[in-house]
Amino acid sequence: MAVTITAGLLQALFAGYRAEYQKAFEAAEPQWSRVATLVPSSTATNLYGWLGQFPMLREWIGARVLKDMAANGYTIENKLFEGTVGIKRTLVEDDQAGIFRPMFAEIGRAAAYHPDDLVFTLLNAGFTTACYDGQNFFDTEHPVYPNVDGTGTVALVSNVDIPVADPGPTWYLLDDSRVIKPLIFQERSKAELESKTNPANSDHVFDHDEYVHGVRYRCNAGFGLWQMAFASQQPLDATHYGNARKAMREFKADGGRPLKIKPKLLVVPPALEAQALALVAKDENGGNPWAGSAEVMVCDELS
């Protein structure tokens, strides 16, 4: 059946598309917020000079001791992402516009899971990507100083365990118990669905006889505190899991103060799901020392 295209019809169509987009966006269950701190951004780039600073209390004798947040130079630059679809005007005229509703639901789902893609892709790249101290996020030589002012003979600390031969799939042990997480998700703008449907103010609509709808999202991911994460390519068994927990529990801040790291989240790729669940499962005889010691998160973006 032929349809007369009016501004009101196009507005109603877009409202329907937006509703499908928003419904799918809200129904999604992304995982990134378990491992990354959300940091709103108001500029092109954020400087994280406070990373590596672990506040502590001291006895108040005399005046307060002010501690500068040294600018370590770690920055996260916002990137611009988009997803765009076109709908031919002839399809709207022929009353076929409704067939695109599922596509807008998929766009909404993709927008909701986009932070997962950024955050977990970055986690996967932690062996070759630097964090605030200049070392790779997962590294054997993170510098820790004996004095709180960053002086003295540096100790080199590892948050990674890679076998000499035959490394297996990577698994991660994280502390997600604090406000500051191991990673950062920086958001400059929300994922917005926009539309171009008027030939009078859109060259594309006029030239191609096509209505354009798209998502614009400005954001990025970066590393937070390496002390809250440990990566291993050893077998996921009780021995290596215990070694990872021990290493994390022994992490100290500059000055030697224990950081009280709590490794509560075991993040694995799908290939290690069974091993991870068995490792922390309770048994009837109580013979598993690691039962309930961490929650298992299976992440599709990891390999």
Tell me the number of helical segments per DSSP (H or I, 4 or more residues long): 6
Report the average pLDDT across residues: 87
Distance between the termini: 50 Å
Q: Can you tell me the residue ranges where pLDDT is under 50 for at least 5 consecutive residues? A: none
- State the share of residues found in helices, binned by percent: 10-25%
Overall shape: elongated
Radius of gyration from CA coordinates: 25 Å
Structural class: alpha+beta
Largest sheet: 5 strands, mixed
* DSSP, total strands: 14
* Fraction of residues in β-strands: 15-25%
Order of helices and strands: HEEEEHHEEEEEEHEEHEHE
Domain unit count = 1
Give an overview in words:
The protein is of the alpha+beta class and 303 residues long. The protein has one domain. It contains 6 helices and 14 strands. It has helices spanning 7-27, 89-93, 101-124, 203-208, 238-249, 273-279; strands at 36-40, 45-47, 75-77, 79-88, 142-144, 155-157, 160-161, 171-174, 183-187, 192-196, 210-223, 229-232, 265-268, 295-298. The strands form 4 sheets. Strands 1, 4, 9, 10 and 11 form a 5-stranded mixed β-sheet that branches. Strands 7-12-8-13-14 form a 5-stranded mixed β-sheet, covered by helices on one side. A two-stranded antiparallel ribbon has the order 2-3. Helix 1 (7-27) packs across helix 3 (101-124). The chain is elongated, with a radius of gyration of 25 Å. It starts with 6 loop residues before the first helix and ends in a 5-residue tail after the last strand.
Observed structural traits:
5-stranded mixed sheet, 303 residues, 25% helix, alpha+beta
